[in-house]
């Protein structure tokens, strides 16, 4: 009966990179791999959309122009509606949303949830830096309307309002899901997060300061950043021996509700 050689023993103690990535018991195993894959899959549609915008794809431009013309015509005929949309887009602008996230970070720090506070900060900062950089790289002009109801400076793609709304809605949803319990409160929290992200993005198209694809790009990029940072945070959880979680159902740190200092 043959005994395993040194190389075989070394392989048994040091499994291949592929086996470690697919090993559920490894700290960077199956769950992290699936989470990172999810983040990548969200980023792929954004990358394809960005390429279409950079290439000036005619069908996308026609669709953008059709949506903008329809909403702009409605805005010109309904000034009260324009006022309401302006209020919404100011209340949920990037700076107020970042201030809200900062308040949540301070609240988490006071509760001793330092790593969770770091996750919120990292998500907002990473998204906040990537957005302006991509605007410069893509260099897309905003809609140029004959009779605009609102104006905005800078480049268009991706929409900063849509991006920051998606970031903020995502982090607040995943922070506060443990407090929502089960049933209707959890559903209500999900609905609130989606509505804030969707309506904030649509307000920019309604005011004629962004193309519809700018807003879609902001949503996709925000979702990709949240997915990526969530993957990193759940990796840390696995490394410290905490039980695996389903972020969409439990949030990223369900133990923070009962034991704040553990997050």
Automatic annotation (TrEMBL):
InterPro entries: PAP2/HPO (IPR000326), PAP2/HPO_sf (IPR036938)
Domain of life: Bacteria
Membrane-spanning segments: 28-54, 91-109, 116-138, 158-180, 187-207, 219-236
Span of domain Phosphatidic acid phosphatase type 2/haloperoxidase: 116-230
Pfam families reported for this sequence: PAP2
Keywords of the record: Membrane, Transmembrane, Transmembrane helix
Full protein name: Undecaprenyl-diphosphatase
């Amino acid at each position: 009966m043959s005994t395993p050689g040194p190389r075989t023993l070394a392989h048994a103690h040091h499994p291949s990179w592929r086996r470690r990535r697919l090993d559920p018991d490894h700290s960077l195993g199956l769950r992290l791999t699936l989470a990172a894959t999810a983040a990548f899959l969200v980023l792929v549609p954004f990358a394809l959309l960005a390429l279409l915008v950079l290439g000036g794809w005619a069908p996308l431009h026609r669709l953008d122009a059709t949506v903008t013309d329809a909403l702009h015509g409605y805005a010109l005929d309904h000034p009260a509606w324009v006022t309401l949309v302006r209020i919404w887009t100011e209340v949920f602008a990037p700076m107020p949303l970042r201030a809200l996230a900062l308040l949540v970070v301070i609240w988490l720090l006071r509760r001793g949830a330092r790593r969770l506070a770091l996750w919120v900060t990292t998500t907002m900062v990473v998204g906040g830096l990537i957005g302006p950089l991509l605007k410069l790289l893509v260099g897309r002009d905003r809609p140029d309307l004959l009779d605009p109801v609102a104006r905005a400076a800078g480049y268009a793609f991706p929409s900063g309002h849509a991006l920051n709304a998606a970031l903020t809605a995502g982090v607040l949803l995943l922070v506060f899901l443990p407090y929502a319990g089960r049933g209707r409160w959890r559903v209500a929290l999900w609905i609130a997060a989606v509505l804030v992200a969707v309506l904030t993005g649509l307000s920019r198209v309604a005011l004629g300061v962004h193309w519809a694809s700018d807003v879609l790009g902001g949503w996709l990029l925000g979702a990709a950043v949240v997915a990526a940072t969530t993957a990193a945070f759940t990796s840390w959880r696995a490394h410290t021996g905490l039980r695996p979680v389903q972020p969409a159902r439990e949030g990223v740190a369900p133990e923070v509700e009962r034991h704040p200092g553990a997050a």
